[in-house]
Amino acid sequence: MKRFGITGWKNAGKTTLTQRLVAEFTSRGLTVSTIKRTHHSVDLDPKGTDTHKHRTAGASEVLLASDARYAILKEHRDVPPSLDQLIARLAPVDLVLIEGFKSENHPKIEAHRAETAQGLIATNTPSVVAIATDTPVRLERDIPQFDLNNIPTIADFIARYLELDQ
């Protein structure tokens, strides 16, 4: 499976860019999955639910299934899984878009908005291979910059970069 990341600081537009890229790639006939990194202590399984009771009783994994979807809740009580381990859990697709995971070594595009007043991650992160921005930025190394709202052009770049068949 090909993988490509979307990175950036808080409120830079990462999630919107990811969402729009998923829609663009799927409209082109590609299958896409996503992985989203969060630093918050998120619990998708609130206290009191049956599945929460299963987990707190010691189950390593709990699969919650309905007619519309299923979710696997995996406890990693010792060491968090690596990005490679997470990707290995996914069913095969053409493209995995990875939101976050700044320090991982997969190719990434940085979402940047001037109003966040943050420096560029691309400055010190060679795996950032392009920038999607609402205003041109100066960077010591020469990497492509795209209009943050020009999703077809960004998708074309990613497809060429990964040699995706479309």
Structure description:
This protein has 166 residues and is α/β, with parallel strands linked by helices. It has four helices and eight strands, in the order E-H-E-H-E-E-H-E-E-E-E-H. The two termini are 14 Å apart. Helix 1 packs across helix 4 (151-162). A hairpin with a 4-residue loop joins strand 3 and strand 4 (70-74). The chain has a single domain (2-40, 79-162), classed as P-loop containing nucleotide triphosphate hydrolases (Rossmann fold, 3-Layer(aba) Sandwich), CATH 3.40.50. It has a six-stranded parallel β-sheet, covered by helices on one side. A two-stranded antiparallel ribbon has the order 3-4. The protein is globular and about 55 Å long. 24% of the residues lie in helices and 24% in strands.
Mean pLDDT: 92
How many angstroms does the end-to-end distance come to? 14 Å
For this structure, the quaternary state is: single chain
Overall structural class, as computed from helix and strand content, comes to: alpha/beta
CATH superfamily: P-loop containing nucleotide triphosphate hydrolases
Total helices: the number is: 4
Which term fits the overall shape?
globular
Report on the biggest sheet: 6 strands, parallel
CATH architecture: 3-Layer(aba) Sandwich
Share in β-strands:
15-25%
Radius of gyration: 18 Å
Number of domains: 1
Low-confidence stretches: none
- What's the arrangement of strands in the largest beta sheet? 2-5-1-6-7-8
The run of helices and strands is: EHEHEEHEEEEH
User: Would you give the CATH topology?
Assistant: Rossmann fold
